[in-house]
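Morning!

As promised:
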Amino acid sequence: MLNDILNFFDDSFNGSKSRYEKGCQFKLQKQYAEAASIFTQIISKHPQAGLKLAETKFEIALLTLTNQRNKATAYKQFEDIFSIKISVPSNYDKKQFEGVERKCRIELGGIRYKNGVESEKEKKYSKSITHYLKAMEFLSSSSNSSDLYFKALSRLEISKLKEGKNPDLSNIEVLQKQTTPFQQDLFYRYTLYLLKNNEIKKAESVLSKHIDFNSLEVEQLKEHCRNYYKSAVLNTVNSINTSIEQLYQTDFPIAETKKLFDTISSTVPSVNKVSKATAKKIEELKPSLFNKLLSKYFSNNQFEEVLKHITTYSNFHQQPELIKNIGIAALRLAYSNQISKSNYSNIISSWLTSVYSDRAILKSLEQTSWDDDYTFTLCESIGTNFRIDFDVENVNYEEVSPTNISIGATQRELLQAFENIIQSNIPDQQLANTAQEFYSNEKQAIEKIIQIISSDITFATPFFAKQHKLASFILEELESSYNSDDNEEALEVGVLFAEDKAPEVISEYKLATQIVNDILKAIGQENKSQIDNLTAKDNQKLVAKFDSIKETTEDKILLELATKIESDDENEKLIPIMISTLNFSPTSQKLREQFSRYVMNLCVSKINDERLNNADALKYLHWAIKATNKNQRGANNLATIIKFNLMDILNDRTTRTAEIFRIVEEIKNLDYETLKIACSELAETRNEILEQLDSETRRNLQTGLNLSTTGKTLKKVLDYMKKLSDDN
Amino acid sequence: MKNPYEVLNINQDATKHDIIAAQKQAMMQRKFPINEIALATKQLLDAEKRLAADFMYPSKLSAKRPKKIETEINVSEVDLNNINPDAFCSLKLT
């Protein structure tokens, strides 16, 4: 039975094999109907028959489409090919079959696209939309058909716009990046659509990107956009005009004046795009409105508002009258006891910036009309170190006389008035101290930049300059002063004005200053590891770059150490700290002497009271003599402590023999005159020891033979005593 | 720190003669203590100090009195419905 079945399949396969070959022959000879018939019969018997049938039917459908121009039949034939897969055996060639299917989809997509175009031509947009969507569905799976896909997508959105439907924004976004032949049509219609929906900014963007060419229609679209902005400007102008009408009525509220002023400030840029002339007229309203608000704030004693109002006005620092007003507001705040923790820096810096402005006082003079023959001189003025250009007729640079009044004296008078206030009008003593210190620092800084800078820029205190973006101008001048004159004072004061973005040399100076300050702080805290980090080579190099820092660092460290010594003159922890600072200033004789003196005093005092062991004393005094070798007292102390330590070894009183020998060995190699003199006493000690020994031991010590461990140690001690004293 | 001009009730352009006359007037009126009147007079008769007093008067920016804005802007309406939507019809490119 089994054999019968197997024979049947063999016969069946052999039969289908020959028929399959026949079918292939028909296909090659383009006898597609015959080939299709055979492949259909053996589809379930031969694994390749299904694929061949699909390929044959594809050729038939193509012929239908091209020869007969029958799209509907061809469409059906292409569609039928997808159903062949159902009848083929499971071991069919999947990859090749999918290739045929992909080709079918491209053909189907093409047919649907053409149908869409036909519907569009007949103005049947719902239909065209359906065809294009279907076309895109067929075409989306094949990368070979992307051109047609995007054409269908463009036509789809054009059809929607033609039908008055909303376009799909994600499709539009995709198409903005494509180049189809329909771009002009699509984006022209889309712009029109956007304009009808009042989306002017979007329409402008599409217009400028895709259809910015000469054409009557495009020009009309542009005109519509311009009209939109023109109308907006006209509305603004109407609103401003209404406010101006009311402005001089007595009950026009200050808040409305402020609103009008802010509106003007914010609308000028957009009006400028439409009409420069109108923008200029609006801009010209600003000073008078500004003045009106200023007067109101002054008359209402709203001095903080005055400061805010002025400092938010564009380029206020270039208007001497405004700099003057800043000073007045600051003084009045101070005078009316309104200095607080939150505003003292603003008030003080505003006042100083104002009084140190020669142009501000010139402005005051310009508005003065005394009935006198006085003239005024800037020769002693505090606000500049050079002659400024001005146009005030009764002002000169001549010497002061009873009729040629010193502007500088007036400025100093004003400064004194403010100083009197901050010394007596701030009840909170802590705040008074802080304010006075701040005043003094700000004053010194502005005086310094006025002394250094010879360019006609706005001079301001550090706080004011940083607050109002004036620091960069000052820093630029200071950097230039340093570059041309090597003037480190310019860097020193520049640090006070430096922010994140300062000229490199000022940043370096700031860092160098910081390093020194941090070292002083670390000395105060006895933080040796911090000092070692801070005194690294790179930092030494940076500090050494600036003479003014380098020259003062030694004294600052000396002073800091002196303060430490004064508080505790027997602090052993200070010794390694002092050594670290010596590494930072290796050439400093003052620091070396301070160190040597400190160590010597500490060792003597502690050894006498037996609070320091001989080995540590040896270690410290060794460091001290290396720091300065000219001190005979120090050398004598060291020689004594060497003797103590060697005797400790001989008498077995120390566990640090190796360390002591190592230090003595190092001392032996030092070539200091003071040390040679001091060590002569060791010869005496050596002789005393030798006298106590019998002759055999002495002989053995001389030859070095027959020595016990103790004998060897004795020989080593005596040898060191000899070598150290021999040099004398 | 009182404004000497206010104490003597005179303008910034007062002459020396005006100042002295105002001092007498102020003394008679006694609106301010005598020492303040004396100080104000002394301040205004000293040119350096008087200049300092003048400095304390707020200054204004030079400005014209605001007037209504006349603009040349004209809006010539464009009727979007009259614009030919098929001006760049691309069907012929299909």
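Chain A touches chain B through 83 residues (CB under 8 Å).

Hope this helps with the figure draft.
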